Amino acid sequence: MATQYVTCPRCSTQNSALNSRCLNCGTAMPVSPMPMQHMPQQVKLPGADKKIAAGICGILLGGFGVHKFVLGYQNEGIILLSAYLIGLVITMITCGVGVFIPVAVGIVGLVEGIIYLTKSDEEFVQTYIVNKKPWF
To answer: Model pTM greater than 0.70?
Structure first.
């Protein structure tokens, strides 16, 4: 004989028909048992785990291009890192006149980090993992 289940009207948890209260939230259970319904499982998209790491690295370490390396964009990461370091050298040689270069590179990383974090997982994977869009 198949086990009868009752769906909690408050939290949608499947409970045994023998329970008078929901095991999850404590709500009184209805008396008519229904067959257990399959709850859809959340599927983790491959590459979606890189979204948070790339976003945080973009915001905190954007000038060094770390977020590009996290996504597997080595050429773009080297470009950002080189531009940042060259900007620092020019800034030191000119006593601060070239400071706009590392600042601009840092702003690029900051903006990209924010863009990564504001996209949905599906949109992020489609744009940056599948289509390999390297900039913005």
So the answer is: no
Note the residue count of the chain. 136
Indicate if 8 and 55 belong to the same structural domain. Answer: no
- Is the domain of 6 the same as that of 58? no
Q: Which residues contact 73 (CB under 8 A, 6 or more apart)?
A: 132, 134
At residue 28, the 3 state secondary structure works out as strand
Decide if 58 contacts 135 (C-beta within 8 A): no
pLDDT of residue 43: 62
CA gap 6, 112 in Å, rounded: 47
Cβ partners under 8 Å of residue 6, min gap 6:
14, 15, 16, 17, 19, 29, 30, 31, 32, 33, 34
CB count in 10 Å sphere of residue 83: 17
Number of domains the chain contains? 2
Looking at the fold, whether 59 and 124 belong to one and the same domain comes out as yes
Q: What's the token pair of residue 69? A: 């390396």
